[in-house]
Amino acid sequence: MLMSQLYSPTLRETPAEAEIQSHKLMLRAGLLRRSATGIYTYLPLGLRVIRKVEAIIREEMDGIGGQEVLLPIVQPAELWHETGRWDDYGAEMFRLQDRQGRQFCLGPTHEEIVTALVRSEVRSYRQLPLRLYQIQNKYRDEIRPRFGLMRGREFIMKDMYSFDRDEEGLDKSYWDAYHAYQRIFARCGLEARPVEADSGAIGGDVTHEFMVLADAGEDLVLYCPACSYAANSERAEGVAIEPDTSLAQELETLTEVATPNASTIEQISAFLQVQPKDCIKTLIYLADGRPVAALIRGDHGLNEIKFQKHLGCSSLELADELTISETTGAPVGFAGPVGLKIPLYADYAVVNMYNAVVGANKEDHHLINANLNRDFQVKDFADLRETMPGDPCPRCAATLEGARGIEVGQVFKLGTKYSSALGATFLQENGTETPLIMGCYGIGVGRTVAAVIEKNYDEDGIIWPMSIAPYQVIVVPVSMKDQAQAEAATKLYQDLQKIGIEVVLDDRDERPGVKFKDADLIGFPIRVTIGSRSLEQGQMEIVLRRTKDKLSVPIAEVVPTIQALIKDGE
Ligand SMILES: [Zn+2]
Which tens digit of pLDDT belongs to each residue from 481-534? Predict the structure, then answer.
């Protein structure tokens, strides 16, 4: 490819829309352009990187017996009604109608479509196991699309679905995918840590997320420095706390106090001169439409996923103002457990609280010295709070540490959730009809590219790993007007092309500084500079993007040196 022809408009300035490095650099290096919020056009260099990541994924998926299919983007609503997800998916789903008024969605995920496909084709255990995958655009109308390819509304994803006859088969599919993912990310030059995660809206029980630890990550990963435990903070388990009698205090008299204009934990604790950990937050939720309350220590946060799981409800949302005033008799900010006539669920940490500050269910008032059992009862204790760095590891006694993480892949054991709902069954060897046992396995292709950049850049631009660089080499003559340089550069360019090396020749009539800046910004792993003085000495200069090492190499040695560098880099 000639640089003069390459459609890769680079930018000297960082566009205002970009907040994180990968997004800034993809725009500046001319890999990507925004078409609408969270929706992007991939320019030639960006698409080459995407295709290389896809090629690695294909090899590894094929290697574990995956077969590639291409499922539709536009999916009929009926299938989603069969699993109940048409209603459950909510506003994140892009919905549309055809001219007959039939409803469709733009696939946010493909469990329904793929399960409906196999239910009419797979009849017997003899056809199992079956592993189907695709690399496809997906659509989610995110509330806050941001960070370029990190959280878009249209994004490229690899998804594989496994169908097995029993749990043992599912287990094998799961771990085959898990190990393939480890190889895929390593081949892309990424260190991705598998962590225990929550399965969220997709359902299922066992799941791991593959996290790249990076400051730009949207997730908080908690990990134990002493054992191998690592989990997304949404999922990280808390440790059950037993009542500890040594902490018991004398129970003081329950007293109502006026707290004008103080409704948040910060305001209350400042006003009453107590610590947030001496207050109990009472949060009113609607669980499947019915009000319930969660009691959390004032310095802790409620984990809604854990709360919903504990309740076993299909929807959970913070109660609206009307419900709160009807339930508590007070406006928002003064709810408390004493006298509240809805089910109360308390986090474990509330067990050992004495003489706590709670809302009085009365505007501008709180109660001090509220005590469990004497003043209020709870229906249940559970692990309801967000686990944080500094909390004890649930597997050993060490203290958890925290880091930001980018989720690049996830593996789930779905079980029979979708096959049961959609009637995807098969005949076992003994003739009984049972639902297929499923797993699903996703990789965010664009997000993987973004994560690679987050881990591989410097002040000059992107530093691509050799395996996914858009081109491996750029040849830069200092001046194309110099005939000797132009001839030597063109010959090297052709020689490299002949042996299948991906190379760009910077044939532009630009100052060398401009050419070097663009080469560094785009991040070609190897640059060959051809100048008059080195040519006279029978040499060319090879510059390595990552280390900035410069090697003067005799002209005859340039091609083999490049070959060796590429081999090393892969
Ligand atoms: Zn541990």
Answer: 999 999 999 999 999 999 999 999 999 999 999 999 999 999 999 999 999 999
- CATH code (residue 149): 3.30.930.10
Please give the distance, rounded to the nearest whole angstrom, from the Cα atom of residue 225 to the centre of ligand 1. Answer: 7
The answer to whether residues 108 and 92 touch, using CB atoms and an 8 Å cutoff, is: yes
Cα(195) to centroid of ligand 1, in Å? 13
Q: Where are the beta strands (DSSP E) in 140-228?
A: 154-164, 193-196, 207-213, 219-223
Residue keyed to tokens 């501008």: 364
- CA pair distance 146, 326, nearest whole angstrom: 38
* 501 is a domain residue: yes
* Beta-bridge mates of residue 162: 131, 439
412 and 484 belong to one structural domain: no
For the chain, the residue count is: 570
* Longest distance between any two alpha carbons in the chain, whole Å: 96
Instruction: For residue 515, report the phi and psi dihedrals to the nearest 5 degrees.
Output: -65, -45
CA distance 368 to 378: 18
**Interval between CA 352 and ligand 1 midpoint (Å):** 24
Give residue 235 CA to ligand 1 midpoint distance, Å.
15
Residues 276 and 299 sit within 8 Å (Cβ to Cβ): yes
Residue type, 544: L
Question: What pLDDT, in 10s, does the model give residues 225-256?
Answer: 898 888 888 777 777 777 777 778 899 999 99
Sign of CA dihedral 455, 457, 458, 464: positive
Query: Ligand 1 centroid vs 223 CA: distance in angstroms?
Result: 8
Ligand 1 centroid vs 201 CA: distance in angstroms? 28
Residues 131 and 190 in one domain: yes
Give the distance (Å) from ligand 1 centre to CA of residue 237: 12
Domains of the chain: total? 3
Q: What is the CATH number of the domain that holds 482?
A: 3.40.50.800
